[in-house]
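Extended Data, panel c. Modelled sequence:
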Amino acid sequence: MDHIDKKLLTHLQQDASRTNAELADLVGLSPSSCLRRVRRLKETGVIDRVVAVLAPAKAGRRLKAIVTIHLERHGEEHMREFLRTAAREPSVVQAYSVSGETDAVLMLRLTDMDEFDSVCERLFRNHSNVARYYTMFVIRTAKEVTDIPL
């Protein structure tokens, strides 16, 4: 990946709806060269997917929660099972197995507290492997981006 690829990726991360001609102009390439590079970046998996980033509040998901989870039983299979279950929940937008005192961290986008209670019932209470969990509700967001620095 050279400096032109990095410029392309930076511009695409900011606005992937740009036309190929606009993108080529921004990085100083011909449209055909630009298109070849973008295709290669997709084929090699550098560009994982192209998506629309929604405004959560306007999409009805005003409440954001960060949940840390401590499992009763440890081991790879127990962790995989918990993460599979969490990934099936529509309100779980990120799910991680982490190092340290916590076993897993979930990021949730919720409509309201009733939805949060339902998610807790399914993930943490009903015969789950969760020993305890702690929830932090986001009051204010200082930064939330999808860009990866290059």
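The radius of gyration is 20 Å. This feature is highlighted in the accompanying rendering.
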